[in-house]
Amino acid sequence: MLTETQLASMLELQDAMNGKVNPDWVAANNNWHRAIQVEGVEAIEHHGWKWWKKQECDLAQLRMELVDIWHFILSAAIQEKHGNTSLAKKEMMAELNLHQKSVQFDNQYYVLSQLQLLDKLDLLVGLAAAKRTNLALFDSLLTDCGMNWVTLFKQYVGKNVLNVFRQDHGYKAGTYIKIWSDREDNEHLVEVLETVDLNSETVRTELYQALSTRYQSVLQAQ
């Protein structure tokens, strides 16, 4: 189960990250649910859905998409509470503590235990289109992808570092290079996460430095 301390930490990190992009991000009223939709569709692509061709599930990238989706769920929760991370934490913990077994959408109840992973991703995208999220559904997606709230917390910290790194290196200005040696930076992050102690107090600094080392090699190769 997600702890209040972990959730509070992630909400604060997300607030700080969003503030780095736009100091007045809450008032900007960004469409976080649209972002969830897009990431959900990307997760479907990583899972594979085409019945007319052979496809293999890229579980590592699917897990990373869930981490991206979590960024936007946190952002939507903070924005809904007008920037108050404490109120966002209180409401999210209350929802998680309900331990819901089903999700209501479009006048129908979907029992989570009866849905396949791909169906759950479809449901997540549908809810996002209706400007909704459901933490029980997200929790179920984590389980299906072999994750739990502890692993999500650790991977969230990793992706938060990558997002800060991107902003520091011109992401918003359009000068950041996202493809490193023919692979997206997300793929490099997956590898880097395997080389550091995610329980270390200096993990964010170590991750940032590891990403910086790889990125410099890309710049030098140009």
Task: Please characterize this protein's 3D structure.
The protein is mainly alpha-helical and 222 residues long. The protein has two domains: 4-145, Type II deoxyuridine triphosphatase (all-alpha NTP pyrophosphatase fold); 153-221. The protein has ten helices and four strands; from the N terminus they run αααααββαααββαα. It has helices spanning 4-21, 25-28, 32-47, 59-80, 85-96, 117-129, 135-144, 149-168, 185-193, 203-221; strands spanning 102-105, 108-111, 179-180, 183-184. It has a two-stranded antiparallel ribbon with strand order 1-2. It has a two-stranded antiparallel sheet with strand order 3-4. The chain is globular and about 55 Å long. It starts with a helix and ends with a helix. The model has no long low-confidence stretch (mean pLDDT 93).
Any idea what the CATH superfamily of the largest domain is called? Type II deoxyuridine triphosphatase
Would you list the SSEs in sequence order as H and E? HHHHHEEHHHEEHH
The average pLDDT is 93
The total of beta strands comes to: 4
Q: Judging from the principal axes of the Cα atoms, what is the shape?
A: globular
Roughly what percent helix? Answer: 55-70%
Which features would summarize this protein structure in a list?
single chain, 222 residues, mainly alpha, all-alpha NTP pyrophosphatase fold, two-stranded antiparallel sheet, 10 helices, 4 strands
